[in-house]
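User: tokens in, sequence out, please.
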């Protein structure tokens, strides 16, 4: 199970015990839901930098990052190796995961 917090952290919790498996510091708050595809957890966050992040769902290590032009206000959708996020200006942006 994954939980993002208002202090800019992403936590992976064991679903059986609730113990913390890892923590990833995004550095900024997130208002999007998490999407997990092929072992990578994708999330959009906003603040001084507007980025999408992808972290290894098992280890919490960063695998992917992309900077967008405006605040991200949607949850990521991943199709055929491309991450789609809607920006504040209602622009749909995309970025390859590789």
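Assistant: Sequence out:
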């Amino acid at each position: 199970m994954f939980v993002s917090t208002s202090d800019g952290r992403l936590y992976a919790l064991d679903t059986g015990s609730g113990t913390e498996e890892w923590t990833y510091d995004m550095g900024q708050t997130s208002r999007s839901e998490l999407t997990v595809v092929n072992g990578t957890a994708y999330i959009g966050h906003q603040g001084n930098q507007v980025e999408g992040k992808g972290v290894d769902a098992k280890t919490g290590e960063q695998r992917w990052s992309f900077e967008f032009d405006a605040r991200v206000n949607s949850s990521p959708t991943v199709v055929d190796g491309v991450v789609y996020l809607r920006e504040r200006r209602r622009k749909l942006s995309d970025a390859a995961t590789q």
